[in-house]
Design goal:
heterodimer; A: 395 residues; alpha/beta; 5-stranded parallel sheet; 5-stranded antiparallel sheet; 24% helix; globular; B: 120 residues; mainly beta; 1 helix; 11 strands; 12% helix; 44% strand
């Protein structure tokens, strides 16, 4: 009988578990998750959960409640302490061990923490888990001043939600613009204006030196500036949870190294989700932080684990909802050598298309133009030129 | 009972369970195109797949967005907001993050006019 062990509790592990259950009825499938409770969906955490439009039961992943019926043994609230590759066995911190024919590492990532030299023991909030989100929501009370460290997607989504809950919001970005990682300048600038118009104060080049927590609140400071706050949230990137894989001697380079079939350097061990560094269509390898990419990679990994063929080379794609705006990033716009604008930025519906040295579409960002995002996905996948794409778009 | 009688009876039953609504000329929607219609307060998306017309709810089952603003590839419609995909023939949710199927409606063409059957 086939024994599958999956380590993780996010969309990649969940999707892999369901896929294994449907492909191999009767197999022993053990899903070892560190968090308590059933796997849930993360995108709503920084949006609907913070806004109070959804609660914990609303974000459970579909099929999670029916694990037993799908032949999946879910073991939540336990940490895996080691992988014994020679014996093909995973050991949990509580002493139990699980033998496998195929193992999936889908341990995801964790928020990068502020260095202790900066924040000491000040109570900084981070956003990764459902618990984090519920705790943060409690803190987002009307009239409070929220300082957000980091002008990336998470920070900006928290900013939008905090404004929605009546808070005063200051975003502190160390770089010269928000969304500097992965977003072209015109998009950074457009989203900057969006936030400013909705009441968010954004401070650029604000290098944080100190966060002090005093009786009456927080005090954040850097060279030449100081900001008081009632609540401090940090969104300064993530770090892949690769420790287990490293300790087991698997190849790790930034993330857990996998090929397009989700194989690691051990033929019995596979990887999926944000923890992995995977080959991508353009530009070598990447760690992709995207719900959709993780879901698809999880399903592909499961197929390969059962001996079936599957390749995971879809075009990376992610979305962010901020205020009433839908922002979709497709492909590799950061690798473009030039850009073309479709639509009208001043009317809040436009698309920035990234092109290579020729005119081939390598990616883009669609803002409130979802149809363009669909088109971009296909254009990047098929490597078409802008003219072929633009002919299908109404101006 | 003959097959024809059965099918006629089925049609009559279907009709008695709802009302056919005219939603414009069939020629307005070319092959590969889709269109938005509002019928008795319901937002409907109409699709032309290689000459055959289909109708579904236009509001995505995942989050509020109109599928008629999305992308139609053969018989699959993709939501403009988060990329969930549905079969326009069956309403079946085909890809993440769509989980719940879409409601479909019978369509017929009467003298060049498209009609949709809305349940009572």
């Amino acid at each position: 009988m086939q024994r599958f062990v999956l380590i993780g509790g996010g969309i990649a592990a969940h999707r892999a578990a369901l896929e294994l259950g449907s492909r191999m009825p009767g197999a022993v499938i053990s899903l070892l998750s560190e968090e308590a409770g059933l796997p849930y969906d993360r995108p709503p955490l920084s949006k609907e959960i913070l806004l109070g439009r959804k609660d914990a039961p609303d974000v459970l992943l579909k099929g999670a409640a029916g694990y037993a019926d799908s032949g999946i043994r879910h073991l939540p609230g336990g940490r895996v302490s080691a992988i014994d590759r020679r014996r093909r066995r995973v050991r949990a911190a509580d002493g139990r061990s699980f033998s496998y024919d195929a193992l999936l590492i889908a341990t995801g990532s964790r928020p990068r923490r502020l260095p202790e030299a900066v924040c000491g023991d000040a109570e900084i909030l981070y956003l990764r888990t459902l618990r984090d989100a519920l705790r943060l929501r409690e803190g987002l009370q009307e009239g409070r001043h929220v300082a957000i460290i980091g002008g990336g997607f998470i920070g900006l989504e928290v900013a939008a939600a905090a404004i929605g809950r009546g808070c005063r919001v200051t975003v502190l970005e160390a770089g010269e613009r928000i969304l500097a990682r992965g977003m072209p300048v015109p998009v950074s600038e457009w989203i900057h204006r969006l936030h400013r118009n909705r009441g968010v104060e954004i401070r650029l080049s604000a290098k944080l030196a100190r966060v002090r927590q005093e009786r009456e609140g927080f005090r954040l400071s850097g060279p030449g500036w100081e900001v008081p706050a009632d609540l401090v949230v940090a969104g300064i990137g993530v770090e892949p949870n690769v420790e287990l894989a490293m300790a087991a001697g698997l190849a790790v380079d930034d993330g857990l190294v996998v090929d397009a079939q989700c194989r690691t350097s051990d033929p019995h061990i596979f990887g999926a989700g944000e923890v992995t560094s995977r080959p991508v269509r353009i530009g070598g390898r990447r760690r992709i932080e995207s719900w959709k990419a993780s879901a698809e990679q999880g399903a592909a990994a499961a197929a390969v684990m059962t001996g079936a063929e599957a390749v995971c080379d879809d075009v990376p794609w992610l979305w962010s909802d901020q205020f009433d705006c839908n922002i979709q990033l497709v492909g590799f716009p950061d690798l473009a050598s030039r850009y073309e604008v479709l639509g009208r930025p001043e009317q809040a519906a436009w698309t920035l298309v990234g092109l290579d040295e020729g005119a081939t579409v390598v990616g883009g960002i669609a803002i409130n133009r979802g149809r363009d995002a669909s088109l971009l996905k296909r254009a990047v996948r098929d490597g078409v030129e802008l003219s072929a794409m633009a002919s299908r778009i109404p101006a | 009972m003959s097959r024809r009688a059965q099918s006629r009876m089925g049609e009559e039953m279907a009709e008695s369970a709802g009302t056919w609504h005219a939603v414009g000329a069939a020629e307005e929607i070319g092959p590969g195109e889709m269109a938005a219609r509002e019928v008795a307060g319901v937002q409907i998306a109409l699709y032309n797949v290689g000459g055959a017309l289909f109708a579904t709810d236009s509001v995505c089952t995942h989050a509020y967005a109109l599928l008629s603003d999305g992308w139609l590839d053969d018989d699959v419609v993709e939501c403009p907001l988060h990329g969930g995909q549905f079969s326009v023939r069956t309403g079946k949710a085909l890809s993440d993050p769509a989980e719940q199927d879409l409601r479909t409606y019978p369509v017929r063409i009467v003298e060049g006019q498209v009609e949709i059957l809305l349940p009572a």
